Amino acid sequence: MVDFQKLKEIIEQNETFLLTCHVNPDADALGSEIAFAAILKKLGKTVYIVNHSETPEYLKFLDYLNLVEKYEPEKHDRIIDETDVLVAVDFNQSDRVVSMEKSFLKSPALKICIDHHEEPHKIFDYLFTGTEFVATGEIIYDFINETKIIELDENIALNLYSAIMTDTGSFRFERTTAKTHLIAAELLKFGLQPIEIYDKLYNQNEKSKIILLGAALETITTAHGGKVAYMTITRKMLDDAKADESEVDGFVNYCLSIKGVRVGLLFLEVKKGIKISYRSKGKIAINKLAAEFEGGGHTNASGSRIYGGTLAEYQPKIIKAAKKYLD
Ligand code: 5GP
Ligand code: MN
């Protein structure tokens, strides 16, 4: 159980809040940050949202308060130090804020975490978390619903709906329940148009992304009797498609769309090493495989970044290591 009364108390007892989310934010990270910031604003608090990454163009429609800033040490370190509360939204391990990690850790502010990932690091004063939540947006919805701290409005509903829609893969992924749909229904009552939101979230691809997807699909290989499927994206493929590494988001799911596949992996060459996305079906705890290779995440969706690692070295190792999780 999440102690929403405690969260309410923290809000009541403090004045300035700085919210931050993980690198390469998705609609759950941003939508949850913006919804939480909206609560604080309605209560007259001073609120900053500062993220390591720039907000992707297609998600800018969420930022109706025009609050989200990209981290610049000269501009934000002092605020990080002087704020009353630092709020980690949609992440629970400090390396997920990359360039902000040092300033985050050394700030004397009260540190709280609102998140739904596994294995939080012991760097927070309070956790408002649970892996049973499909999205961080669901935690924020429950918080509003249970404490009635503010009244929901259309803008907050848009952010929470986008958060939940994204993290459930549009109500397809494992943790989706009747409750998820009931929340979605409550949010839609504010006049949201699901078709419009879907279009904004999923149909804004650059042509380069679709070209890259074509190349990535051609690399799909299966292993372990067809239970594992993996995709490989090299720097050359990114360059040839004139695509950016953030555009591969979601590609790994194609591996899982193959009949009989239980584990899908995406190997991506990034500037300083490799990034792996891990996905699984059912009870296969793929975060354990990710943890073997400097990563982590959820039971069915995890990731890791291996700085200085190469595809040649790690791809065979990871595929071999995947075998023991298949039964
Ligand atoms: P994705 O494969 O979409 O980048 O990430 C899937 C999930 O894996 C994320 O929601 C996050 O929980 C986790 N994740 C991704 N990259 C990392 C990483 O480098 N380290 C850790 N600990 N978790 C990650
Ligand atoms: Mn999330």
Structure report:
This protein is of the alpha/beta class and 327 residues long. The protein folds into 2 domains: 4-201, inorganic pyrophosphatase (n-terminal core); 207-325, Diaminopimelate Epimerase, Chain A, domain 1 (Roll). 40% of the residues lie in helices and 20% in strands. The chain has helices spanning 4-13, 27-42, 73-82, 101-106, 136-147, 154-167, 178-188, 194-202, 207-218, 235-241, 253-256, 286-292, 311-322, and strands at 16-21, 46-51, 68-70, 85-89, 110-115, 126-129, 221-223, 228-233, 263-270, 273-280, 295-297, 301-307. The strands form 2 sheets. The chain has a 6-stranded parallel beta sheet with strand order 3-2-1-4-5-6, sandwiched between helices. Strands 7-8-9-10-12-11 form a 6-stranded mixed beta sheet. Strand 7 (221-223) and strand 8 form a beta hairpin. Helix 2 (27-42) packs parallel to helix 5 (136-147), helix 6 runs antiparallel to helix 7 and helix 9 crosses helix 10 (235-241). The chain is globular. The chain starts with a helix and ends in a 5-residue tail after the last helix. The mean pLDDT is 97. Bound molecules: guanosine-5'-monophosphate (5GP) and manganese (II) ion. Residues 93, 117, 277, 295-298, 301-305 line the site of guanosine-5'-monophosphate.
